[in-house]
Specification:
146 residues, alpha+beta, 5-stranded antiparallel β-sheet, globular
């Protein structure tokens, strides 16, 4: 049994401008209400150290980067404990449009604990939407137009 969350927002900036903010993990604590702390290298196989805030719950995870394609996609896979208990594949996708960039954030969840995670998944969806809005504000406030 799996679950997914998908959100998107239009950002009035080039994908390179969005990527510059999205890939600057050390500054997440300055603007990101969902991923409140982030450390690591964005290269496939690298392990990240993330602190997520979903509702009143804070969770520390150590996902592995699976895709880091500048200006296009960032993807990682994380597990709660051992694989199969509660797993999540998180995707940040940037798509250029005439109006700027469509930023899509999604996650596919799987594992035995999915039936017990309803509240956490609902809070996570709200966290995605808050992060999307904060990313839009951060990028549009600092983007240099060419």
């Amino acid at each position: 049994m799996g679950r997914s969350i998908e959100t998107e927002i239009l950002i009035d900036a080039r994908p390179a401008d969005v990527w510059a903010v999205l890939s600057d993990l050390d500054r997440y604590e300055e603007w990101n209400p969902f991923i409140v702390a982030a450390r690591g290298q964005l290269s496939p196989g690298s392990k990240l150290k993330l602190t997520l805030r979903a509702g009143k719950t804070s969770v520390k995870i150590g996902p592995k980067v699976t895709v880091a394609d500048p200006d296009h996609e960032l993807r990682w896979l994380g597990h709660l404990g051992i694989p199969g208990i509660f797993d999540g594949e998180h995707v940040h996708h940037l798509e250029p449009t005439e109006e700027g960039t469509t930023y899509k954030q999604s996650e596919e969840f799987g594992g035995m604990l999915i039936p017990l995670m309803g509240r956490l998944l609902k809070d996570t969806a709200a966290g995605f939407r808050a992060m999307n809005a904060a990313l839009k504000e951060r990028v549009e406030g600092s983007a240099v137009r060419s």
